[in-house]
Amino acid sequence: MNILVIGAGGREHALAWQCAKDANVQQVYVAPGNAGTAFEHKCKNVILDAAASASDHSPVINFCKNNAIDMVIVGPEAPLVTGIIDACRDAGIRAWGPTAYCAQLEGSKTFAKEFMAANNIPTAAYQGFTDVVSAKAYIDEQGAPIVIKADGLAAGKGVIVAETIEQAYAAIEDMLADNKFGDAGSRVVIEQFLQGEEASFICMIDGENILPMATSQDHKRAFEGDTGPNTGGMGAYSPAPVVTQEIHDKVMAQVIQPVVDAMKAAGHPYTGFLYAGLMIDESGNPFVIEFNCRFGDPETQPILMRLQSSMVDLVSQGLAGQLPKQAKWDARPALGIVVASKGYPESSSKGDSITGLPALSTDPHKSVKVFHAGTAINPNDEQSVVTDGGRVLCVTALADSILEAQQAALSVTAAISFDGAHYRRDIGHHAIARELAK
């Protein structure tokens, strides 16, 4: 079996690594991949037509036909929003992910909020705006703290949690007046600030059946103590103890099942991964902060470290409309620490030499794995690796406790070095506080 994984990040490295472990898989192609996937067992990076537009999926179709691809797994949101699944299906190619219609849940914050309102899915109160004056007037009415979101795709960075009116004004100016996020920020959604603890709830859906993945918690803020600007994610761990069985059942009944039912009723059955970013309030009630139409990053890395079922089998079952109700998981927790490049999240540095990377291992029992994201092979030395983006690596460890997983990941992370490297040392602090309180 040959598989094509679309994407270049840590999520895609983890997906490719999981697929390559399957004995039935001969080759995993990753387009375009990174330095980690270039060196990974049974994996090969491929560059498709760089001249093609974002909405032209013919290079993927042609590659699949020319290389006997049995299955396509799409990692990032952009190709999903522009209809890569629709294009693959039309060409008779088996591809895992939601259609362009369903991917609007991530592609448009306005679509997502209106969808949630129409289907009684709990979420923050909100209003959408396209002009600065009206947006500022609404902020004056609501006060701070308040959340400002770019309507479209902004690579996980189009969300500003404004602690003051002045910060909210600045975010509005950046998005609507200064075009900081391009077309993604030409419309903004302003939301009520929700109190509580966040969790990531990710499922596989085949249009009818729902398979919940292991729960996880992301850390969006750049600095320790959950301070600093929002990022695409500085680390994650799985499972998230904040999601008790009672809360799990509420999320399935109040969030996930309504999405599946509404999309099916609209004539657009939801297939693929669905990510619900949640805020759990002090009463144990879940509210949707955002939907993503794909696996989260960096949540994918610790979740897939724990997955003992075959990802290839699960996707095959999903494509056949026969997802099981549960997968097999390692009972131990896993935790991943993102190592970011100089200037992230406002900017990123490329071409900085990375040292201290542990050797890749094909041992499935190895307890620490370094997943690559913003990396590339050094053009002057094919055996060395350089930075190639904002989030560079995710050092992920599996251990008997969250604290032990954190310490194992930190130990490996401390040996890795490149100019401007920075990471949080407190990933998992909510769960660790619960462990220590027992």
TrEMBL record:
It catalyses: 5-phospho-beta-D-ribosylamine + glycine + ATP = N(1)-(5-phospho-beta-D-ribosyl)glycinamide + ADP + phosphate + H(+). Residues 113-320 form the ATP-grasp domain. GO terms for biological process: 'de novo' IMP biosynthetic process; purine nucleobase biosynthetic process. It comes from the Bacteria. Pathway: Purine metabolism; IMP biosynthesis via de novo pathway; N(1)-(5-phospho-D-ribosyl)glycinamide from 5-phospho-alpha-D-ribose 1-diphosphate: step 2/2. It is an enzyme of class 6 (ligase). Its EC number is 6.3.4.13. Keywords: ATP-binding, Ligase, Magnesium, Manganese, Metal-binding, Nucleotide-binding, Purine biosynthesis. The keyword Transferase does not apply. GO terms for molecular function: ATP binding; metal ion binding; phosphoribosylamine-glycine ligase activity. Its cofactor is Mg(2+); Mn(2+). Belongs to the GARS family. PANTHER family: PHOSPHORIBOSYLAMINE--GLYCINE LIGASE, PHOSPHORIBOSYLAMINE--GLYCINE LIGASE, CHLOROPLASTIC. This is Phosphoribosylamine--glycine ligase. It comes from Psychrobacter urativorans. The gene is purD.
